[in-house]
């Protein structure tokens, strides 16, 4: 900003921008994997007949979706880290970002890799009995839609940090929306009991309502994070202490 | 800053590697690696015949599963010394380590579970074995991103005396390319990409072993050169 327009390669915030632009890339792959590739989403009914379930669990596309996910799921940590470092700039305890970090670690396997593997395993070996396939179907959907606690702790810590922050890194209304997002996670808890109706895993409340809130929340967070990175002053950057121009011989040692 | 703690943590890596090598050498499932083409009955028979060896290694790996974490933690500390605008790459790295290690632990549990009651329905033993191979071979996404984050943090540090030499970053990018084929093990039951094939199994494990050795050396050097340089991560 202060040094006039420079090329993106020399931006001092390049690390943050790379992480930031990986987020839409990740979510695009994530969407491709779960919607048009596997047709796992929108969720099929828990009441589906066994032949339907067997047929779906043996579709070859599930394997391709699995491969793309195993290659892409490592980007989820980058997205989370991109949000986390804004919490680091806030006037709140490190406990908030550590909570988010641990939520991100636990959530990646139980809410993403494991459910996708349940579907992939069914398709990998066509000889499995229908009892095994229906169990994998249930386990896959329940783990994917019913993984709640890891995300609860992330949204709670993120929302509270925004609300408590005095440095005004992210807007306060986003903090309240994030708390709301946390409440929608609680609302999905009955998927472990209900097999039909609005609280089943494909229900109006637990899936559709929660999904609309989540997607719009994700977009808003993303825009706010963009503004937060853009507005961060050069003097506040972690590398402000390091003189990056090699022409200046003596490095500034005590900054 | 005193780097004694980092050096102690680093030197926990060689015994950890020795234990992993031992586990690899005595694990019946790996000598030779079980073929994905075995029928459930053949898999169940294999687990029935090798209960002791499989359970022994499953228990050992349960204990040592996280024993390379200190090496990765020291890597994260050294990454945070790079002159980048934020610790975003370090945070992503640490989360990747947690996720990747969990996948390894799940593989270990699935093999242990298959050997725990090998008289189970062969379909279930076969499912546990498939699941173990899925978790052991396929989820390369996190270590790929982790090594890319490391490489980026080295590339972005253009001070005259960077924490790591440039070639360590190039090496990490190369490991990303060499590890990627394993993800495709899900699509094949025979050939080089199958989970027991030269690309998915041998190349993957060799790359990982060389990677740990190179990082150990690079980290010893980085910690030695650290002196009283500041560490940003908190």
What does this structure look like?
- The complex is a heterodimer of chains A (255) and B (234).
- Chain A has 255 residues and is mostly helical.
- Chain A has one domain.
- Helix content of chain A is 65%, strand content 0%.
- Chain B has one domain.
- In chain B, α5 crosses α10 (198-226) and α9 (166-179) runs antiparallel to α10.
- The mean pLDDT of chain B is 94.
- Chains A and B meet through α1, α3, α4 and α5 of A and α6, α7 and α8 of B.
Q: DSSP strand (E) fraction of chain A? A: under 5%
- Calculate Rg of chain B over CA atoms: 19 Å
Number of DSSP strands of chain A? 0
Give the termini distance of chain B in whole angstroms. 15 Å
How is the secondary structure organized here?
The complex is a heterodimer of chains A (255) and B (234).
Chain A: H1 14-37, H2 50-57, H3 61-72, H4 75-88, H5 94-124, H6 130-146, H7 149-164, H8 172-187, H9 204-231
Chain B: H1 4-10, H2 13-26, H3 40-49, H4 51-64, H5 69-79, H6 88-116, H7 122-137, H8 141-155, H9 166-179, H10 198-226
Helix pairs in contact in B: 2-4, 3-7, 4-6, 5-6, 5-10, 6-7, 6-8, 8-9, 9-10
Concise synopsis of the structure shown:
Chain A has 9 helices and no strands.
Notable characteristics:
heterodimer; A: 255 residues; mainly alpha; 0% strand; disordered C terminus; B: 234 residues; 10 helices; 68% helix
């Amino acid at each position: 900003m202060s040094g006039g327009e420079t090329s993106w390669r020399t931006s001092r915030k390049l690390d943050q921008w790379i992480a930031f632009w990986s987020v839409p890339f990740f979510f695009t792959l994530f969407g491709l994997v779960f919607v048009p590739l596997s047709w796992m989403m929108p969720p099929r009914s828990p009441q589906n007949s066994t032949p339907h379930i067997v047929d779906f669990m043996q579709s070859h596309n599930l394997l391709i979706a699995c491969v793309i996910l195993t290659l892409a799921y490592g980007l989820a940590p980058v997205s989370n880290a991109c949000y986390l470092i804004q919490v680091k700039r806030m006037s709140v305890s490190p406990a908030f970002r550590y909570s988010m970090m641990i939520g991100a670690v636990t959530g990646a396997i139980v809410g993403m890799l494991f459910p996708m593997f349940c579907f992939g395993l069914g398709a990998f070996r066509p000889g499995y009995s229908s009892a095994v396939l229906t169990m994998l179907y249930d386990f896959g959907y329940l783990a994917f839609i019913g993984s709640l606690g890891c995300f609860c702790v992330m949204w709670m810590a993120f929302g509270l940090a925004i609300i408590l922050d005095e440095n005004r890194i992210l807007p306060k209304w986003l903090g309240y929306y994030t708390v709301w997002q946390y409440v929608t996670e609680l609302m999905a808890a009955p998927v472990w009991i209900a097999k039909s109706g609005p609280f089943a895993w494909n229900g109006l409340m637990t899936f559709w309502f929660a999904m609309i809130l989540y997607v719009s929340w994700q977009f808003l967070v993303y825009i706010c994070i963009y503004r937060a990175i853009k507005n961060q002053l050069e003097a506040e950057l972690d590398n402000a202490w390091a003189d990056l121009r090699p022409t200046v011989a003596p490095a500034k040692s005590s900054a | 800053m005193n780097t004694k703690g980092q050096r102690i943590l680093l030197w926990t890596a060689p015994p950890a590697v020795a234990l992993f090598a031992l586990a690899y050498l005595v694990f019946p499932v790996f000598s030779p690696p079980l073929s994905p083409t075995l029928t459930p009955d053949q898999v169940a028979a294999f687990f029935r015949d090798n209960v002791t060896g499989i359970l022994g290694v499953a228990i050992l790996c349960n204990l040592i599963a996280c024993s390379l974490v200190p090496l990765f933690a020291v890597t994260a500390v050294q990454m945070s010394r790079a002159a980048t605008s934020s610790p975003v790459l370090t945070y992503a790295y640490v989360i990747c380590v947690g996720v990747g290690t969990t996948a390894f632990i799940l593989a270990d549990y699935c093999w242990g579970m298959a050997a725990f009651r090998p008289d189970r329905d062969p379909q279930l033993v076969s499912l546990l074995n498939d699941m173990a191979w899925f978790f052991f071979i396929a989820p390369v996404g996190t270590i790929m991103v982790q090594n890319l984050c490391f490489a980026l943090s080295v590339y972005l540090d253009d001070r005259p005396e960077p924490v790591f030499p440039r070639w360590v970053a190039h090496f990490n990018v190369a490991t990303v390319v060499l590890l990627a084929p394993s993800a495709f093990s899900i699509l094949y039951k025979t050939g080089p990409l199958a989970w027991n094939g030269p690309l998915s199994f041998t190349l993957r494990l060799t790359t990982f072993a060389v990677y740990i050795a190179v990082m150990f050396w690079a980290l010893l050097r980085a910690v030695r050169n650290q002196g009283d340089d500041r560490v940003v991560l908190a």
